[in-house]
Amino acid sequence: MSDIKQWKASVRKQMLKRRAGLGKGYRVSADQAILKRILGMESYRQANVLFTYVSMEGEVDTREGSLRALADGKQVAVPRGGKGGIMSAHRIKSMEELRPGAFGILEPVESCEEMRPEDMEFVLVPCVCCCGSGVRLGYGGGYYDRFLPGTPAVRAALCWEKMMAEDIPREKHDCAMDFVVTEERVIEYSR
User: Fold this and answer.
1) Where are the alpha helices (DSSP H) in 21-83?
2) Which partner for 52 in 74, 94, 124, 170 could form a disulfide, CB atoms 3.0-4.6 Å apart?
3) Helical ranges in 53-164 per DSSP H
4) H or E element at residue 3
């Protein structure tokens, strides 16, 4: 294992331990503030197609945002994991079209239309943590780092302020973010 992979694994382990200690009250309040910031972003308002992860326990909540996007008339696509760490985007028209898939993550049912990555306009990206330079640390599966190069969409990683790290190592294949959105700020980057 390379030094950078070991460094990333160490940061991931440390940050997941930190995340486990965050109180529910903080997370709920922060999630509401993050949603408000997303809804206020020009990139979000102009987007007709939103690609968003379906949050699991311990992640910034995207469910209310997905419902809001649907109510606002946006097309909402969510990922379905595939073989070899490849994921695809599938349009949902309601949250009832989601069922547990790999690792218990909610995924679109088979009847949901697959959409092309190049049709996505705004992507909400999960993370374990981010740092001030815009580097995002995921869970290590590489799903988003394989998907994002195929889409011109604006990329926004959602991260609680208490999960911002001082430094995260970045490898060549790690995709840059356009924004990191926390409950306190929207940090913009140029990629």
Assistant:
1) 24-40, 42-46, 63-71
2) 124
3) 63-71, 143-147
4) helix 3-20
> Quick one: CA torsion of 125, 129, 135, 139, rounded to 10 degrees?
-70
AA identity, residue 90 = H
Rounded Cα distance, 153 and 121, in Å: 4
Q: pTM higher than 0.85, yes or no?
A: yes
Token output for 66: 């997905």
Q: What is the pLDDT of residues 145-164, one digit of tens each?
A: 999 999 999 999 999 999 99
**How long is the chain?**
191
CA–CA gap between residue 117 and residue 86 (Å, rounded): 12
Cβ-contact 168, 7 below 8 angstroms: no
